[in-house]
Amino acid sequence: MKQTKLYSLIVTLFLLASCYKDKGNYTYNEFNKVEIEFEEGNFLTPRVSDTLRINPWLIYGGDTVRASTVAETFSFTWYCNGEQISTAPVLDYAVRDLTGLRPYVKLMVVNKTDESTFLNGFYVDAVPAYLTGWVMLTKKDNRSIISFIDPVTFEVTADFYTTISGNELGPNAVEVREHWMASSGLSNPGNILIVRNDAAGNLELDGINLGPLYNTSNFFLGNTPPSDFRPRGEFYMWDYSMMLDDNGNIYTRKHVNSAFSQSGVYPNKPMFIPGGVKFDKGWASTYLSGQTILYDKTKGQLFLGSDRGLVLPVNYMPGPPIPPGATLINAMDKEMVYVGPLQQGRFTSSYYLVFFDGNQHYVQKIMIIDQFYTIQAMFFSENAFGAGTANAESVFCQLPRIDNYLFYSGGSENKTLYLYEQGPGRSSAYFSFDSPIRTVTASQNEIMGVKTHDQLMVGLENGDVYILGILSDQMADPSLRLIKKIELGEGVPVSSMYKMGFGYTQM
What's the pLDDT score for residue 377? Predict the structure, then answer.
């Protein structure tokens, strides 16, 4: 009996000691536990040209402190995909130096007192340096030059085509434009199309590194373009591409793979269009619309290149009569000088058409409805505008996502940018320059989750480029409008665009 009691006493003492020891360990571990948090989150999307500057938070002992303040207590080791890159508390590292297609950056924190170790990390999905930004085509000393302007730093990559490819564009490049494709193309970067009005043909450049990809004249049957072929435009839709040549002919191809713009071939002979129609100019509509606007100046008629491979005349829908004196799209008595598409739909989309009679400009709003074998337009309005301001040298920029705003150049020697408000029908001077305006282009960005336009790029004859703000506060206060003046110095602007990056930004 005494032996049993002694045994019970020993077991009880052992259990009490274990509980005390366990309680001590629990308190010790909780007190020394460190949580690592990154203010930027666990999925970072910096630009390739950026530098990561990460000063993480450490949470321990009931306090939250910056890593930079506790270097005497902890040691820090940063890794990228398992490779050590820094031992500083604050990571200061160029994004372009990270390794791997999708770098995983990990921080190891070690308590110097007890060598307890703690880990956390984040993924880096770097935005390519040339994914978004301004692209300017200029002409200097009989050379066509294409330059890229960073949308944040405004750093210029001048004459990049010649630098990258070692080749010249030639003297006859007339337009730059971004194009995407449907399906998987929504998440692929938009490429740059350079239209060259000469036998050398158009070029497509890679949307990531700006390097040359294709000469689109090679996509004619047998890699042989028609005789006397000089492109004037090339237009990409979801299922079809169209080529306009200097003789006013249209060539159409169907994409074999709708997620790959350069699939399928153009025939060697142009599309037959009844009535001897020859097109003077074409305008690419918005990516979503699957429409191309074509214009026969001789006949004064508007046509639609459809995403079904058809080219058909546009006629007004039956309904209320067109007001007397309005410019008829199937019998124009004025020259059509500009088409401003609005971001709306695929088979139904609206446009602002700008006409000029030699003295006065007019803007007409229509909605075009693609009905497969017939193309009809709904007439909305037509107004004269720009009296005393717009002129024969005026260039225009309708904001695709903001119906009300049309910018145009004019005034004395074409040196003033004007804002025309479609609703009230009024013009006002927006900004004046010391050289004639040659190009006007709008950016497209996301502001507080809403896709909109926040800047304009204006290219001047003297080679300077201006970035202007067009948000509501900048419109209200002229002193806020100038964001940046860039002395590009690459010649006279010919064409410009804002590279938007991915096709889904157009949805």
Answer: 97
